[in-house]
Each structure stands twice: as C-alpha cells, then as structure tokens.
Write a structure and sequence with these properties.
The chain is an alpha/beta fold. It folds into 2 domains: about 160 residues, HAD superfamily/HAD-like (Rossmann fold); about 80 residues. The chain contains 11 helices and 8 strands. β6, α9 and β7 form a beta-alpha-beta unit. The longest helix is centred in the first third of the chain and has 19 residues.
Length: about 260
C-alpha cells in the first residue's frame, strides 16, 4: 500500500448542503422557468412544467441504469421541440436553464468545515480533485464558485461535461490521470454508497463515506454489499483520518 497523495471529493451533500425540500424546490424552479419562457414570447400550455419534469425524471431513471449523462440542455431541447421549437440557439437554452437553476442554487450552501478542511489538506501537501454527478455543468460551476471552493482544486469534472456518471470507472480514471495518481495513492470522499463508495472500491481507490447528510436508515441494506474503507461524521474528521492512515504506512516494515 502506498501513501495517500490525492483526495477526490463529491460535491452535493459532501462539501455543500441543500437547505430545503428538494422536490418542492424543483417544482418551483420549473415553474419559474415556465414563467420566464412565457414572458419571452414562447407559446406553452399550463401543462408544460409537469411535462418537463416527467421527461427529466425519465432521463434521470435511465442515467442511473446506464451511467450515461444526458445534459440538461438536451432534455430542454427535446421538450421544447415537442412544443414546436426545434431550433433554439445555445443562448436561448442557457437563458431558460439559468431561470430554472437560479432557484435551486439559492438553497445550496458550503458546509462550515469545507474550506478549513480543504485548506488543511492542501497544507499537508495533498492534491485535490472533485467529481460531481450532475445534469448541468454550468450549475455545478456556479455552485463551486458560490461556495468558494474552486481555489482548492486542481481538477474538477461533472458528469454533464464528461458524459458518464459515477460509479463508472472512466470518470475516476480521468481524475487520477489529471492528478498524476495511481488508485492506491488516492481516496474518494462522498455521501452516496452506490456511486461514490462503489465507484472508488471498484477502482482500488480507498473510499471514505461521509455520513452527515446520508440517509443512514436506507444505507443499512446497502452496507451489506458496499463497504467503505473508512467513515467520518464531518469533513473536519478527514485530515486526522488520512494522517493516521499515512502514519500507519510509515510504521509498516512492508511498505513499498
């Protein structure tokens, strides 16, 4: 086993948290996008929000099965084509999605211990990367900047930008390649067993489950077949855990 040189993070419910009911905010976000489209001059019936959400949920179900991300732009274009608008410009799509995602962005906040933890890891000489499953890359980039996280990361990738979702091995491979690390030199920190932890385990990356925002009741069954290498309650617990792992390697006569 080699010393840890690289730490990969999930974003949502790991470094940032959502302060409200997700489904309620999504309904409000799509309603806001609908109003914006009507104000802009599009002809859309009152069923548009429900139809849009239904199409988006079907894509979400499919992406969880296939681990292939369909970006929000493609979902929006498909819905609008059905209403007679097949040739929207990139700017028109961006304006509509901005109206949608600005509503949810207001409810995401950085964990209080996120930046102190990232700073401590950087001070310890570790290289940091971020891998986020998300349908809209511009949303992820906005959330990263809103939380003040960007200066701490050498590598950032979303599934929307890459096209594949965790736990697909290729998105982890991309991060390792960018950071110059082998799997045994890296750890992955995230809250979802089926994506963050499973994906890391399959790659030979040590996995750390952060439990603060996780659904612990639902996780009990999953833990029977997906086991993290370590678990922490908060990000503030992470530097000591990594230091202890590296210290144990320093003391081992078989370390290579």
């Amino acid at each position: 086993m080699k010393p840890i040189t690289t730490v990969l993070f999930d974003l949502g419910s790991t470094l940032i948290y959502f302060d409200s009911n997700w489904d309620e905010i999504m309904d409000r976000a799509v309603d806001g996008m609908h109003r914006k489209l009507l104000e802009t001059g599009y002809t859309l019936d009152p069923a548009f929000p429900a139809h849009y959400l239904a199409v988006a949920r079907e894509y979400n179900r499919w992406r969880e099965e296939e681990l292939v991300e369909t970006p929000a732009q493609a979902v929006f274009r498909e819905v609008m084509a059905g209403y007679g608008y097949p040739d929207l410009s990139d700017e028109q799509v961006r304006e509509a999605l901005t109206a949608r995602y600005s509503t949810s962005q207001a409810h995401w906040h950085a964990e209080e211990d996120a930046i102190p933890t990232l700073q401590a890891l950087r001070d310890a000489g570790l290289r940091l990367g971020l891998i986020s499953n998300a349908g809209y890359d511009e949303d992820i980039q906005t959330l990263i900047d809103k939380a003040g996280l960007r200066p701490y990361f050498e590598f950032i990738i979303s599934s929307a930008a890459f096209g594949l979702r965790k736990p697909h091995p290729r998105i982890f491979e991309l991060a390792l390649e960018a950071l110059g690390a082998r799997p045994e030199q890296a750890v992955m920190v995230g809250d979802i067993l089926e994506t963050d932890i499973l994906g890391a385990n399959q790659m030979g990356i040590r996995s750390i489950w952060i439990k603060r925002r996780a659904d612990l009741t639902a996780a009990q069954i999953t833990l029977e077949h997906i086991q993290p290498a370590g678990a922490i309650e908060t990000l503030a617990d992470l530097p000591d855990l990594l230091a202890s792992w590296n210290s144990s390697l320093d003391r081992s006569p078989t370390t290579t």
